[in-house]
Amino acid sequence: MRRTEVSNPALVEGRAPTYEWPMADTRDLVILGGGLVGMTLALAAAKSGITSHVIDRADPAELTAEGADGRASAISTASWNLFTNIGLADRLEPLGCPIAAIAVTEGMKPGRIDFRPKPEEGSLGRMFANRDLRLALFEAARAEPALAWHSSAEVVARERGPHGVSVTLADGQVLSGNLLVAAEGRQSPTRDEAGFSLAKWEYRHRAMVTGLWHEKPHDGVAWEIFYPTGPFALLPLLDTAEGRHRSALVWTIPEKDAAAFEAMGDRAFLAEVAAKMDGLFGALELSAPRASYPLRFHHSGKLVEDRLALIGDAAHGMHPIAGQGLNLGLRDVGALVEVLSEGMRLGLEPGDAQLLARYERWRSLDVFAVMAATDTINRLFAIPGRLPGIARRIGMAAVQRTPMFKQFFMDEARGVSGKLPALLAG
Q1: Domains defined along the chain, listed by start
Q2: How confident is the model at residue 5 (pLDDT cuts 50, 70, 90)?
């Protein structure tokens, strides 16, 4: 059954939350999807006085259950500024592991690139367990009166008209607003129902995702190790209170090998992981459940239509090679909130076509550039053969010796290049 969460003192006192059926109301935004990007949008909008309904089919208790999700996300410097500006920094600061450096290498061979910022530039970002990000967002959402959160809710109809939008839930309740925002992820039914065309293809690879305990410290270094079969990423997570070292693993393997890897026992899987790491972190154990998902590219030809805007994976999905998927969605959030809040100060409504057109112009070039660069890097490192490998290592060595190139790549990783929305600029 669908439920709506409201601010409740029981949450502060440690008691179980209660749920109420609120009076029907019209809000500025109707956000479909209450994941990391959708909920961040609702909280960022609230800071600018913009109200919202957030509708999500998932149960938040299941999403945040211990061990339910072993994934982790790299939060760029710009995205961290966004979380700070919407009041999440105090909750998240103790849980994130600063990325002190990024090491890029081809099969652990000589000629790697080390990206390490100057001390005054801070870290290259922070690594967070997705569960911790969700817990922080959900806690803030429960306390925000400008946000009505409808969880475990099934949408059966969407309407967009000249004067507003409405969404009908399976229980018959109708929620109305001024602008519909699709934040449902890669399989967005709202985007598909609106008929948005997609550029898309399959990489014919699968990402194997889990967490690792390891004997040696990672020293805050994120490793991107390229193999002919796909990249192998080790992402540093914060040590536990007991001092145990841990990292997140994102290992790309060919789809044809996925069934064999998924059928492996944990001991055999760890042996394969250890072989790829060449003793980098010493002895290994699994610290999270193993999961996998197919890798696909998709890019929507449009980001807006009448009273409709796409954000996050509903608009664009990319290879995880550079860890920029979530950060790209958070830049969508910052841009949309800035455009809407400036327009509303001038007396325009959130669904105004001029505002949506500005959002689309702002985001289209940045999204295309990041996705094209990520796809190109993936394809370059996927070319098999000895000569392409030698050429790649020569190119990597040239970047290692050229401070200007290294600074460019570090600025991209930190998300501080180009025109940033105010919420992400610090």
Answers
A1: 3-199+296-424 (3.50.50.60)
A2: low
